[in-house]
Structures are given as structure tokens and as C-alpha cells.
Amino acid sequence: MSSPDGRRHVVIVGGGFAGLGCAQRLADHDHVRVTLIDRNNYHQFQPLLYQVATSLLSPSDIAHSLREVFAGDDNVDVKLAEISAVDPATKTVRSTDGEEWTADALVVAAGSQPNFFHTPGAAENSFPLYSLDNATNLRSRILGLFEHVDRNPMLIERGALNFVIVGGGPTGVEVAGALADMLAVTVPAEYRELDLSAAHVYLLDYGDALLKPFSDKAHGYVAKVLTDRKVELRLGTGVKDVGPGHAKFSDGAVIATRCVIWGGGITAAPVAANCGLAQGRGGRVDVQPDLTLAGSPGVYVVGDVANIPGPDKQPLPQLGSVALQSGQAAADNILAEFDGKPRKSFEYRDKGIMAMIGRRAAIAEVGKNHHELHGQLAHAAWLGVHASLMTGTRDKIEAIIDWGWDRFSKTGGPHVLDRGDAAEIDWEDDPTVTSSAASAGTAG
Ligand SMILES: Cc1cc2nc3c(=O)[nH]c(=O)nc-3n(C[C@H](O)[C@H](O)[C@H](O)COP(=O)(O)OP(=O)(O)OC[C@H]3O[C@@H](n4cnc5c(N)ncnc54)[C@H](O)[C@@H]3O)c2cc1C
Q1: Closest residue (by CA) to atom 5 of ligand 1?
Q2: Any idea what DSSP says for residue 26?
């Protein structure tokens, strides 16, 4: 509600690209007071999670304290809390520990979560890549496997060097490329006794091409770069089940593995389902062109958690740029409403799409007309765009140092195994894996 000093109160749930964009825009207006609530005390830069997972960047390069971001803005208060209930009628949110915040305008920007599509064993046994916690967990599992095999090369027969990546979208492709580079360049330089000739990186997708939204020419380029780097592509193939020590593919193959990386899809954050908000495609909340919830004036839903209609009425893609711009547009509409002016429909400014495929290889479609770039030029565009999107100057400098280090050195970035639990493996816990069949890299 309005503060005793007369300032209007805006509550934002989620400090990702959308919530941050909204709060930063409102921070410049002293007649507005903002409460920004997140279950983490930091903003995480999701497009670079795979670089943390593959030891190219440090966690501190891609995560930034929300309190630090708003240290100079007296009208923005950050709260560390998990929201479990949203009441659009009263514009009130409640945390899991029972605290409530009521606002003049409410912004839900809670993002997404991995979608395992009910694949048996996937939630328990695979490694999603959606948060910083996921990324450091995966990094420790990958490094842990190298450490295990360094001590006991017989574990290769149990699939210790088989990596299965599910999903041929940007997450799957970027992880596959970075992992292939790790195996070819940085790991041999540091693990001198490790025999990596038996390592396999499998990349699976039910579709017939990787990075589907790009052109056919781009599909050919991506497939060539990855196969040249020894990634084994399995298109038209998905995963049927995941055990602690194996993955079963839809074509019947069973691969012994201790590292299944899940980039198979996303669905809306649980808050969308738990709060009685009307859900549309992908479990996301349908919003009107001005980003408000139909029938709930003053309630905005933005970023990944929202189905935002594009010019063709189809939902806009779940991208960082859509999230950032929709958060900023929600702020503009909130300010307009407070001033008694009309709200505007959100218009997305499409700057293109890009993906990194590995060292010196990237693909980008830039500008409104999606002009296509491949190779080093696309790599440079990717570096520029991602560095400029990062939250703090310190992050940018540190990330650029790490990227430069990766570009010119053979030893990698931060190969830090800091999650002992993720590296710990009970090699006897999967009855599907037998040592006889596993010697061929498969389980019987
Ligand atoms: C691995 C990966 C790679 C990607 N690569 C790219 C790329 O190259 N380019 C691109 O444009 N996009 C990319 N994306 C997509 C992009 O990151 C998302 O579209 C964007 O982060 C969405 O922003 P958001 O603010 O809506 O959600 P998020 O960034 O997910 O932020 C949501 C925030 O809400 C908080 N939250 C959630 N639930 C609650 C709750 N109940 N209570 C309190 N807080 C809560 C979370 O902690 C989080 O901070 C990638 C995504 C992933 C996962």
C-alpha cells in the first residue's frame, strides 16, 4: 500500500532480467517505493551458466548481489524471501515463512524452471542448468569424474567419461561445445595421466536440427563444428529414462554414464501454478499486450513466467532481452498509471539471437533482419553483447579476463571442485550397468 510518506509502493517478485529491469527503471523515481523480493540474494546471468559449469568463468563473474546493485537507490528495498502465494485481487504476496507485502502495483517476474516432461529418473539423476546452484553442482560432477578416473582408470568401463546432453537448443549446444573443448584442450593440460581417448559427448534432440530457430545454413554449421570436435549427435532421439549410472535413449541404446545434463526444456516457475493465476502455453501466465493480468488492474506479469503476445499474437520467446524489455515496459506503465495516464502495449525490439558453440565458434543472427554471422565474427558479437548485458562493471572486467584467458591459454579457467556431494559417486548403485557391456561404452 501507499507508504505513510505518500509514496506509491511497487512489489516485484523475482530479481532476474525482468524484475531487475523493472526495479532499475523505477529506482529513478523518488515518488515510488520498491520492494524487490527474491529467494536468492543475487541476480544470476543465466546465459553464462554453462561457462561456470564448464570452468570457463567463476560464479562471481555471473552473479551479483541485489543489495549491491541498489546500494545507491534509497527507494529500493531488497528482501530475501520465497513467495508461495500471490493474491491478484488485493495485490498481496505471502512468503513461505508467512510475511506479507501489499502493493499499489504488483509485478510477478519469477522466471522458469526445468521441465523434465515426466521422464522417469530425470529429475533425480540428471543435472539441469537453470541456476547458479545447478551450474556449480554440474561443475563439481564433471571435475569429480576426472578425479575419479585419474585415480582409477577402470571406471571408464562404468561410463565415467560418457557425457549425455539432452536437448539441442542453446543450452545443450553451448554445453556440448564447451565440454568438447574442455576434453580436447584444458583437461589434458591439467590431468596429465588421464586417458581421454575413451571419452564420449552425446548430444540428443528429438528434432531434426540443432538450434532450430536459426537457418538451415546455420544448422549445417553448428552440426559440423560439433562433430569436428567429436561430439556425437543423435538427432531424432530423446531420453526414455535416466538412472544413477545410465541413460536409456528412445532408439533403445543404453549408455553407461554418471553425467546426464538436462537442457530439455523449461516450464513456468511454480509460483504460476501455486497462486491460481490463469496458465496458458508452457504453464506460463497469459497477459494482455500492456503486460497486465486480465481483470486485475495493477498486476503485471513479465519475463519468462509470462505468455506475452508478439506482433503475430504468438507468445514472444523466453529470452533475456524479452525479459529485460518487458520488465522496463511494466515499470513505464506503472508510472503512467500512477500519473493518471494510459498504459501502452509492449513492443519488443528484436536485436537478434546468438549462441556460442565453443572456442572461436559461434553463430549469431543480428539486427531486425537477423543478418547471419558465423565463426570468429559471431564470437566477437557474442562477447560484446554478453559483456554489455552483465550487471556490474566488476563482473564485466573479470569475465573478460577469464574469456581472454580461455582464448589464449591451454590451462582452463577456475577448475574448482567445491561441491563434494556432487562429486561423490556410489559406483555400485545402478543394476542396469554391467562391466561386461560397459566396456563398449554401453550398459546391458
Ligand atoms: C542455461 C540458459 C541459457 C540461456 N541463454 C540465453 C541467451 O544466450 N540469450 C538470451 O537472450 N536468453 C538466454 N536464456 C534465457 C534467459 O536467461 C531468460 O529468458 C531470462 O533469464 C528470463 O528472465 P526472468 O527475469 O523472466 O527470469 P529469471 O532470470 O529466471 O529470474 C527469475 C527470478 O525469480 C526468482 N524467483 C523465482 N521464484 C521465486 C519465488 N517463488 N520467490 C522469490 N523469488 C523467486 C528467482 O530466484 C530468479 O532470480 C538462457 C536461459 C538458460 C537457463
Answers
A1: 47
A2: H
Cell of 33: 517505493
Q: pLDDT tens digits, residue range 261-287?
A: 999 999 999 998 877 788 888 899 999
State residue 444's pLDDT score: 42
Instruction: Give the pLDDT of residue 392.
Output: 58
Give dist(CA 40, CA 82) in Å, integer.
8
Residue 295 near residue 278 (C-beta atoms within 8 A) = no
Sign of CA dihedral 153, 155, 157, 159: negative
CA–CA distance, 146 with 153 (Å, rounded to integer): 10
CA–centroid distance, residue 319 to ligand 1 (Å): 8
- Ligand 1 binding pocket mutation candidate from 11, 41, 45, 46 (most atoms within 8 A of CB): 46
Among the options 99, 100, 147, 174, which is catalytic?
174
Residue 215, helix vs strand vs coil:
coil
d(CA 81, CA 75): 19
128 touches ligand 1 (CB under 6 Å): no
Residue nearest to atom 37 of ligand 1 (CA): 110
What separation in Å is there between the alpha carbon of 43 and the centre of ligand 1?
9
Q: Which residues contact 379 (CB under 8 A, 6 or more apart)?
A: 356, 360, 361, 362
Measured CA to CA in angstroms, residue 97 lies from 9, 69, 85, 110, 215 at distances of 22, 25, 11, 18, 48
In whole angstroms, give the CA distance from residue 10 to residue 36. Answer: 8
Cβ(197)–Cβ(235) under 8 Å? no
Convert the pLDDT of each residue in 121-170 to its tens digit: 999 999 999 999 999 999 999 999 999 999 999 999 999 999 999 999 99
Does ligand 1 come within 6 angstroms of the Cβ of 17? yes
Contacts of 327 (CB under 8 A, 6+ apart): 17, 18, 19, 20, 21, 22, 23, 25, 107, 109, 302, 303
Q: Which atom of ligand 1 is nearest to the CA of 129?
A: 1
Q: Residue 399: in which H helix or E strand, if any?
A: helix 393-408
> Are the C-beta atoms of residues 137 and 127 closer than 8 Å to each other?
yes
pLDDT value of residue 394: 54
Q: For residues 342 and 365, is the Cβ–Cβ distance under 8 A?
A: no
Whether 174 is a known active-site residue: answer yes
